[in-house]
Design goal:
TIM Barrel; 8-stranded parallel beta sheet; 11 strands; binds flavin mononucleotide
């Protein structure tokens, strides 16, 4: 069965919003709009299950269930979220997809999947991974319904050691096939338009996950300066960087050791590069985030992290989420047709 058929409200190629959890970016409004446009809308949850419950209530009011399931995904950060606290909320709302990311140990995904499948037998379990090795291990121990292959261009958190999707997706695809696994893949990291989506489909993905692009949607809960900084940034390989520093700004880093994050380069990072002591960087950061601008600044000014991927320079305007879904879906088809006609 193709992925699109197992999510019957969706249109091909499948466009998915990343479950952006930082600051609750992806909530009811964004996920509803993406699903209504024929994509897979997702909500990001951390550890506030009351908030997740109320977001899902809102989605339930806006969308009809499809085959007994709420037609969205819910993203869980496995190293933070408490499984037993999440289960009752998920059981109540029955999302079509539960998306897992950032486990401390890969075996933790199997623990989650087992519990999720007994509580929500009709929901799909998706896992986002960032290496061939992790994809193979998770395929074997979890048998996820879908693997999201996240490349190092991705905004936000991901594997510290990584490769871009152009090499990662085909190698994962080959390795899974060689080991007898038939698991649909979706790709994430650096995809913001139809050209990127078309490339990901050519690499073997059945759908594309976008984070950075959806931050520039009015339905995303994001500070206006964050959005402004994202729209202003160009040349993402230069203006963004991966570092563990970003997770050390509020206090000691709580993320699993394999992870770092990609943010726009800003004053905290410049200080770090010049050898300023972390205590001093933290002091200035924690002071800055109390201000009205929340520490965000355009063109590298500002002290707070602005998570964004390397394709940030292609995102130039705020656009309704439904328009983003439709435009990328349509442009991906056109890009593939254009390539085909030139062969
Ligand atoms: C602001 C932001 C927050 C994110 N939060 C999460 C998260 O909570 N859970 C998760 O699985 N992925 C998260 N991601 C990563 C996305 O799932 C996805 O891999 C990434 O956005 C894809 O790269 P792109 O930003 O270039 O589209 C986040 C990404 C961004 C930019």
């Amino acid at each position: 069965m193709t992925l699109q058929k197992s999510l019957p409200w969706t249109k091909s190629p499948l466009i998915i919003n990343a479950p952006l959890q930082m600051g609750g970016f992806a909530g009811a409004e964004l996920s509803t709009a993406v699903t209504k446009a024929g994509g897979l809308g997702q909500i990001g949850a951390v550890n506030d299950m009351n908030n997740l419950d109320s977001q899902l209530d809102k989605v339930g009011q806006a969308l009809d269930h499809v085959d007994g399931l709420l037609p969205i995904g819910v993203g869980m950060l496995v190293f933070i979220t408490k499984l037993e606290e999440a289960i009752p909320v998920l059981e109540k709302h029955k999302p079509a997809v539960v998306w897992l990311f950032a486990a401390k140990e890969l075996d933790d995904y199997a623990t989650w999947a087992k519990r999720l499948r007994s509580a929500l037998p009709k929901s799909q379990v998706w896992v986002q991974v960032g290496s061939v090795d992790a994809a193979l291990k998770v395929a074997k121990t979890v048998k996820p319904d879908v693997l999201c292959i996240q490349g190092s261009d991705a905004g936000g958190h991901g594997y510290e050691k990584g490769a871009g999707i152009i090499s990662l997706v085909p190698e994962v695809s080959d390795a899974l096939a060689a080991n007898g696994h038939d698991i649909p893949l979706v790709a994430a990291g650096g995809i913001v338009d139809g050209r990127g989506a078309a490339a990901a489909l050519a690499l073997g993905a059945q759908g594309v996950v976008m984070g950075t692009r959806f931050i520039a949607a009015p339905e995303t809960n994001v500070h206006s300066l964050y959005q402004k900084a994202l729209l202003a940034a160009n040349d993402g390989g230069q203006s963004t960087t991966r570092s563990k520093l970003f997770d050390n700004l509020r206090g000691p880093n709580i993320w699993p050791v394999a992870y770092d994050g990609r943010s726009i380069v800003m004053e905290s990072f410049e200080d770090h590069e010049s050898g300023v002591d972390i205590e001093e960087i933290r002091r200035k950061h924690n002071e800055a985030v109390k201000a009205e601008d929340a520490g965000f600044g355009v063109d590298g000014k500002g002290r707070a992290a602005i998570w964004a991927g390397t394709a940030v320079g292609i995102v130039k305007k705020v656009q309704p989420a439904a328009e983003i879904v439709e435009e990328v879906r349509d442009a991906a088809r056109k890009a593939l047709e254009a390539v085909n006609s030139k062969l």
